Amino acid sequence: MTIEVTITDPQTDDDQKRVGAGETQTKMKLDMRKGVDGSIMIFDHDDIDIVIMPKKRKILTFAKEYYGEHVYEAQNRFFKFLMKRGIIDYNSVQGGNVFSSMEAAIQESKQYNEIQHTLLAVSRFMDDERPLMEFEKAFDAQEESRLNEPPPGESTEWDPDKYHSEKKGSINRGQMPFGMSTAAVYRLEE
After folding, report:
1. What Cα–Cα distance (Å) separates residue 95 from each residue in 2, 11, 79, 91?
2. So what's the pLDDT on residue 26?
């Protein structure tokens, strides 16, 4: 499904400067779907899913897979980004009715199409977040590789005769620890 978004500049009254029909002013590439109720769901981010609800003029974020501080931090960056661009009312940001979700109201405008501007802002946010997400993926892959095949200085060879002896610590096998009597053990077994 393709969603075509056209954003025109209201400052230019000259028709020659305006974008003509069929011409593209801005291109964006997002992994998004449209719901049966008309909501737009965006799945590009690694930590959160974004839902734009045009009828209710709301934008929601949900945790993708795992809950935690990283989800809240991504939501916080996202809503601050939208607030700085004038897309949402910052006082409307609140927790949603689903665990680890947040929502905000999209500001109403008589001059601009709010949903088109929201989509453009989400696209710009994803462009800003992409380097961070790629770094995290590369770091995780490098760490997994390091743990699976550690460098020579970070591991020891397994030698059961050298590292694993029959007697370990101060308690001998078959002998009760200091302070416990054999009478107490017999009572517990009965």
Report:
1. 31, 37, 12, 12
2. 75
